[in-house]
Amino acid sequence: MSPAADLITFNEATSAEAFASRFGTPDDATARLLSAVVGHVHELIKEFRPTQEQWRKVIDFLTEVGHASDERRQEWVLFSDLVGASALVEEINSRRPSGATPNTIRGPFFRTDTPERALGSSISLDGIGEPLEVEGRVEDLDGLPIPTAEIITWQANAEGYYENQQPDLQPEFNLRGLFRADQDGRFHYRTVRPAGYGVPGDGPVGRLLAQAGYPLHRPAHLHFVLRAPGFETITTHIYDDSDPRLGEDALFGVRPELVRPFETDGRSGTKVSVKFVMIRARPGKSK
Ligand code: BEZ
Ligand code: FE
């Protein structure tokens, strides 16, 4: 028999199968994932039946996303975040028992080199904005304190910009800090109230979505990473419950248990109280 007799004829009905049949190791996870992705792309093409011109526009867009990505900006991550893919992967992989603090996406503005600060100090290095006090407790599912917990926080300023978006306007490490919980698992620090903001809309992903009328807004929030030996690391947000646009988060990160009142009383200013509940590390799960 000629080798051609083994080939699957490529047509609309067989295209995905023709692709999948060429893998030498169909049991390999990469081969299975690639076949599945390509199968979905072929289905999409059959459903929408793009012209060559329209398909070239798709390729041009993907090319632009690649060109807009470098070590300072990751447009592909933004793409994944804005279409809800990051939130879905997070949801599938870090589902925790009830009562534990849920994970949300980390986003592009986190810095690994955040400086450690003393409990009670201020992370607002320029002092611009409405003062806010943050106090919290890190505990386990039984309500016992986790004294060794490390709390890393970062947030936008009162105008909705992160320090690394405005290196010429904000002091380095403004509105960022690493704190260690005390023996009761408690921590507190001073900051300024963050504003909601638009996710970067100046790249190909933001432009495409804005053109399609998609909201690029994020309601006001604080970011946190919580770490403690023997516990699963938590990456999460706390949202300001007075933000009128809480329901419009472009990144699908708002969970009822992460929304907290930012309470103002005439004498002591604005305060938010948070509680983070960590669970013991599970084999095969994040850190
Ligand atoms: C953020 O909340 O910092 C963020 C997350 C993903 C994309 C853009 C911003
Ligand atoms: Fe943010």
Describe how the helices and strands are arranged:
Layout: H1 15-20, H2 29-48, H3 52-67, H4 75-82, H5 85-93, E1 131-140, E2 150-155, E3 176-180, E4 186-192, E5 197-198, H6 204-211, E6 217-218, E7 221-227, E8 234-240, E9 259-260, E10 263-265, E11 269-278
Parallel strand pairs: 1-11, 8-9
Antiparallel strand pairs: 1-4, 2-3, 2-7, 5-6, 7-8, 10-11
The structure holds benzoic acid and fe (iii) ion.
Fe (iii) ion binds next to strand 7.
Percentage of residues in DSSP E strands = 15-25%
CATH-defined topology of the largest domain: Protocatechuate 3,4-Dioxygenase, subunit A
Bound molecules: benzoic acid, fe (iii) ion
Tell me, rounded to a whole number, the average pLDDT. Answer: 91
Approximate shape:
globular
Number of domains: 2
Physical arrangement of strands within the biggest beta sheet: 3-2-7-8-9
Strand-and-helix sequence, N→C? HHHHHEEEEEHEEEEEE
Using the coordinates above, name the CATH class of the largest domain.
Mainly Beta
Query: What is the fourth-level CATH superfamily of the largest domain?
Result: Aromatic compound dioxygenase
Structural class: alpha+beta
Spans with pLDDT under 50 lasting ≥5 residues? Answer: none
For the biggest sheet, the summary is:
5 strands, mixed
What percent of the residues sit in helical stretches (DSSP H or I)? Answer: 10-25%
What's the β-strand tally?
11
What's the assembly state of these chains? single chain
